[in-house]
Amino acid sequence: MYMQRRYVLSILMLAVVACVSMNVHAQPVQQYLSNQSLTAAHLSVSVDGEHAPSQSWWKRIWSYLGIRNARIRPEIGTTLRVESSAYASSPYQTDATPCITAAGTTVRPGVVATNFLPLGTIVSVDGKKYIVEDRMNARYDGYYMDIWFPSTSEALEFGRKKLAITIIGYGEPGDVIEPTPTPFVSPEPEKTMWRAIADFLVTKTYKDPNRYDVNCTN
Description:
The protein is α/β, with parallel strands linked by helices and 218 residues long. The protein contains four helices and six strands, in the order ααβββββαβα.
C-alpha cells in the first residue's frame, strides 16, 4: 500500500512539473510574438491607410517558422507599399537555374519575386498585372518585390522604386497573366548615326551589362 501511494504521488509530481515546464517554455514564444508582430504594422507598412489586421496565433507561428506554403494571404483589394527592384536571368543575380523560378516555372514577363506573399498571388502595379512565382534572397524578409526583366540593362534602367501594389487575386504558378506587361521601360528612341557611334564607343569602353544573361525563351 505504501509503495502504491509513493507511485501515485510520483506520477502527480511529474504531471505538475510537466505543466510548469510547458508554461515556462511557451511564455517566451508568446512574448516574442507579442513584441515582434509578424504583420504589416510591425514593418511600418500601411494597408489601405491603416495598420494590417492582427492575424491569428497559429498563422503568426507558421509565418515565424518561415514555412513557404503557410504565408499569410492578404485580403483581395489590400494595397501595400513595397520597395521594388529588378533582376534578370543571370547566374550572378539568381541561383544555378536562372530561367527557373522558385515555383518551378519558366521566367517570363509578368513574373515577380517576393518573400511575403504566397506563390501564385496576383498583384496590380500601375494597372499592370504580375504574378508571384519567385523568391528573393532570405535577407529580404520585409516588404520587398523583385520584378523580372529579359535583360540586365533593362533591370538597371528600372533601378529601385517605392511602389503601391494591390492584391487582386490568387492563382497558380504558371498562369498566363493578360495583358502581358512591359514594366516601366520607356520606348527606345529612333537611333541616329551619332547615337549609333556613341553606343559603339560605350560598348568598346565598358563591358556589356548583358554579357552574362541567359536566354530563357528557347
